[in-house]
Design goal:
- The chain is mainly beta.
- It folds into three domains: 241 residues, no CATH class; 221 residues, Protein of unknown function DUF4465 (Jelly Rolls, Sandwich); 74 residues, Immunoglobulin-like (Sandwich), CATH 2.60.40.
- It is built from one helix and 44 strands.
- The chain is elongated and about 105 Å long.
Length: 556
Amino acid sequence: MRRFTLILALLASSLATQAQTVADFESLSLPKADTFYENYSSSGNDVGFNHGLAHFPCVYNSAWGGYWSSGFAYSNMTDSATSGYTNSYSAKTAKGYNSSDKYIVANGSSNYIQLINAGKGGFASGFYVTNSTYAYNSMRDGDAFAKKFGGTTGNDADWFKLVIRGYNNGTLKQDSIEVYLADFRFTDNTKDYILKTWKWVNLMPLGKVDSLHFSLNSSDVGSFGMNTPAFFCIDNFTTQENLFPYAPQATISGTTAVIKTDASIKGWAAQCTIQQGWLDIADKSQGKVTFGEGANATGIADNSLVCLGDSGSAVLTFNNVLYNGAGADFVVFENGFANGSNPEEAFLEYAFVEVSSDGINYTRFPAVSLLDTVQIPMAGTYVNTRAVHNLAGKYIGNYGTPFDLDELAGTPGLDINNITHIRLVDVVGSTGVHGQTDKNGRKINDPYPTPISTGGFDLDAVGAMYLKWPTTVPTVASGMNLQVFPNPASNYVQVSFKQQPQGELFATITDMKGSVVKHSTLVNNQVSVASLTTGVYYLVVTDTNGNKWVERISKI
C-alpha cells in the first residue's frame, strides 16, 4: 500500500534472540523405577511443579477421603498391560517420548498449563501426547463405566478428543487445536484407531500465550458426564521465549537486507505479469486495486510500484535463468518504512515467494511469522522484523529481502539451478476466513483491510545474484538486427531484420533449461509455435554462415 495514505501509530515489540526450552521431565526426582509423584496440598490448593518454562498444576479434593482430582503428575511407570483405575499413572507406550524414562500424566477433563518466567507471553511450540494405559484399555475393551469403542459390531462412530486453547493477557483466544486420542468415525473400520504412540501436537497456530487450557471430550457420555477415563500423557513440552529469532531490520547489525546498489545483484527482472487482487477480499463488490502495472516492477528498484491488492500476484522473469549460488540467490524489494524512534520496527506488508523451473509448477519458500494474531490496522502499526522469515516485504524500501534456493533443494519437480519464473502472492492480513498461514499453520498478519486502490503488497523490483544462459543457448545478444513478433505468440512468430541475411535461415527453439524443443527452416521468416506448451523459450536464428541471433519468446 502506498505509504502516503497512512496515519502512523506505534506498537512496541521485543528485541530478539532465539530461545527454545524443552520440558522433558527427566531431571524430576523419583525414588525408584515404576513410581510416580503428585504434588498437591490437602487444603485443595494447587501446588503442582515447575519444569522448563511452565507450571503444571496438581489439585487435591478432600471428599471421600481425599484424592488427586485434576492436574498433572510425573511418572516413570512402565505398566502398559494392566487395565483399570489402579493403573492410572502409566502411558500406553510404557516409556516417555523416544524411550525416555519420565513423562507426565494428566487427570481430569479440564486442566491448565501456565507459562512462566521468560515463557510467559511467548509461544508454546508443542508437545508429544499419547494415551494412558487406563484410558487406552478402557476404550479397547470397555469396563464397568465405559463402553468398548466401536461397539459390538465395530461400527459405532466413537471418538476421544483433546482440545487445547490459549489465553493471552487473561483473554481466551478463538483458535483451538484438536487432537483425536481415538477415532472410530471412519467408514472403513480398518482406519479406526486408539493412539498408542507418541504424537507431536503443534501449538504454534495459537500464537502468543500466557497459559493453555486442555479439555477432554468423548462420544461416550452418561448422566454424570464423560464415561471414558479422563487421562492422557504428555512429554517434551516445548516453549519459545517471548523473543524473536530472525534477522533484524535493515541498517541493524546482523540484518540480511540487501541494498539496491549492492554489487552482488547481477541483473533485474525484465518481464512482469500482474494479476491484481481485491480492494477488500471480504467484499469483492468494491472491485480490484488499480495502482501500477507490470512494467513498474521491472528493472532496478526505483520506488516505481505496482500494488497487488488482496491475494493479487506477480510473475517475474529475467532474460536469463537463475541458479543456486553461495548465499542469497535473489532479492525482492518493497517500500516498507521504519519507525523513526525505533529502528528495529517498521511498517510492513508481505507476499509469499514461489519459484518455478518450468513456468507451470511453483514451490513456495517456507514462510514464518511469529507476530501475534491481533489484527493489524491500515492506519499503520510498526512490527518487529525479527519475527518474520521468508516473506517478501520484510525490509524497508531500497532494501531487498533475500531468498536462498538452497532451502528448496530436493523439491520434486524443481531444478534450483534453472529457475525460470518467480511468483509473488500477496498475503491477506486477515485473521478471519481469508487469512493465510505460515509453514507452522499460524495466521500471518500485515495491514488489513486496505480498501484503497493502492492496497496490498507494493512490488518495486526483483534482483538476481546468479544468472546464466540455458545450457545449449549461445550467449549472443539479439542487438538491433532482429525483431520477433507477435510476442507472446499462440500460433507462429515472425522474425524481421534491418538487413535480411543472405541464404537459408534456420530456427532452433529451446526451453528455459536449454533443451531443444523444435528445429526447422524459417519459411517466409516465420516459425510455428502452435505445438509448444505454454511457457517461455529462446528462439535461436542461424544463417548459412553460422551467424546467430537470439531472442526470448513466450508461448500463450
